[in-house]
Amino acid sequence: MRITAIQMSPGADRAANIALADALIAQAVAADRPDMIVLPEVWSCLGGNRAAKFAAADTIPADIEALAPGSAAHFLRATARRHGIFIHGGSIVEADPTAAPDRVFNTTLAFAPDGALLARYRKIHMFDITTPDGTGYRESALFAAGDQVVTYLAGDLRVGCAICYDLRFPALFTALRAAGAELIMLPSAFTLQTGKDHWEPLLRARAIETQCWLAAPATIGRHDGPRGEPRLTWGHSMIIDPWGDIVAHCSDGPGFTTARIDRGLTARLRRDMPVMQHRRPLPAEDHPA
User: Fold this and answer.
1) Distance CA 53, CA 103 (A)
2) pLDDT single digits (tens) 121-151
3) Cα 276 to Cα 17, 105, 181, 205, 256, distances in angstroms
4) pTM of this prediction exceeds 0.70
5) Containing domain of residue 180, as a range?
6) Is residue 282 part of a domain?
7) How far is CA 102 from CA 59, 180, 247, 249, in A?
8) Which residues are catalytic?
9) Strands (E), 143-219
10) How many Cβ atoms from other residues are within 10 Å of residue 23's Cβ?
11) Measuring CA to CA, which residue among 189, 162, 159, 161 is closest to residue 46?
12) What is the CATH number of the domain that holds 63?
């Protein structure tokens, strides 16, 4: 299977972002003929204030045929059908008033070539940190956390779902491997401050320890924060094999990169170094008062 990771420089304008994604996907399909395309984190609405996020949020109906025209989710499904490929939709902003009346979700949707919805994953780990330059991020003030480990089949390839900050929590990746994943998707909007030092080492570590392929499409460049302040994301989208080698990498700026997923390599590595069989139960964590 050939996988293409799309790198974008989106802002808060959903229509403009959809147009950019559409153009990049068309270029990638024409140039590299992938079987699957994966987009970055919150590619449809990066930046902006709380009101902008809620305005751009999609509601996912029980009947997938009823997706609202003009929504990011509708675009993803239509694109999968138009090009006859799998679409792992990075992540979009999802509204679900029943589950979170005052917040939204950071949600991955994956579609089959016929438009069937294969998976919905809500980001588990919230990015509530202060970067070295003093910029504060409080994702949990706007986004509710998911609580499900999600995989799906793309043909006969088991794909695991993670988003951005999830990268720093190896237990999730171990759970995805235990669920049968051979490829893990990590759409991201990694900050420039953290990305320049941690992006590549963490990606390679997760690939090595799980013996999975990792596809990590990312946003790059400047966008406006909730108060109009400039924020920068790192980019450097890449695809990494189960040995930890970077087999495809994006240059600076919007673009795409493609690699073939060699399942034979995965099988050989897992046979010769059966790390999952060597895992031992650990004592329960001690939580002092």
Assistant:
1) 10
2) 999 999 999 998 889 999 999 999 999 999 9
3) 40, 32, 13, 15, 33
4) yes
5) 2-276
6) no
7) 14, 35, 42, 38
8) 41, 123, 164
9) 143-144, 151-154, 157-161, 183-185, 213-216
10) 11
11) 189
12) 3.60.110.10
